[in-house]
Design a protein that fits this description.
This protein is an alpha/beta fold. The chain contains six helices and 14 strands. Strands 1, 4, 5, 6, 7, 8, 10 and 12 form an eight-stranded mixed beta sheet that branches. It is globular, with a radius of gyration of 18 Å.
Length: 212
């Protein structure tokens, strides 16, 4: 598993504003959108392309286009939905699947309540969107499902990660035959006893959409 921390002043600036408890939901949503676009630039460094010949106003030229099959972007509901627009801004031709997953706040166990994905993902590059890599339970379950359906290259885009969650991912996919990358804006100190990242930014879903 490869971990890429986006070390950039604009990333740090937007992340600081996201952490601030005074940031309201509309501003929080805008900042997430902007931050994810920056992270998507790093996350798509290995996106597959194929050569194409075009004609400029001056002469023919050889360039590249995204290869087939199209990449698949998979936000984990509900908080991952707030990251979708920022990701598809850079990958407008990508297809989008959805995973609905929820964590029991008492036991920290993860259950899946909705799946909208192709049954066969053979040859597909997948980009999983999950704001917080905290305990690692949600993200590892999502990646396992994608691998089971045949995905052969997976990149996870997270706003924040905790060392405990990264350790869970590392252990879960130590022997996986599929390349796995985690792209994040920062790795924080630890998890608290409720499974929240410290210092973190609170519950990303609540801050995006409210507590309903």
């Amino acid at each position: 598993m490869r971990i890429h921390i986006a070390d950039h002043p604009l990333v740090a600036h937007k992340l600081t504003a996201l952490r601030d408890e005074r940031t309201d939901s509309p501003t929080f949503r805008r900042l997430v959108d902007e931050l994810v676009t920056l992270l998507a630039y790093e996350a798509t460094r290995d996106v597959r392309t194929e050569p194409i010949t075009i004609k400029t106003p001056v002469a023919p030229a050889v360039g590249v286009k995204l290869a087939s099959p199209k990449p698949l972007v998979v936000p984990i509901l509900r908080a991952g939905l707030g990251m979708l627009e920022g990701m598809v801004r850079l990958l407008p031709t990508a297809e989008v699947g959805f995973l609905g997953m929820i964590r029991d706040e008492g036991t920290l166990t993860v259950s899946m309540y909705a799946t909208r994905l192709p049954e066969n993902l053979s040859g597909r590059q997948c980009y999983v969107l999950d704001p917080m890599l905290a305990t690692g339970g949600t993200l590892s379950a999502a990646v396992e499902l994608l691998i089971d359906r045949g995905a052969d290259h997976i990149t996870c885009v997270c706003l924040l990660a905790a060392p405990e969650g990264m350790a869970v991912m590392e252990e879960a996919f130590r022997d996986a035959h599929v390349p796995l990358t985690i792209v994040t804006a920062a790795v924080d100190e630890r998890l608290n006893d409720k499974g929240y990242i410290v210092p973190g930014l609170g519950d990303a879903g609540d801050r995006l959409y409210g507590i309903a």
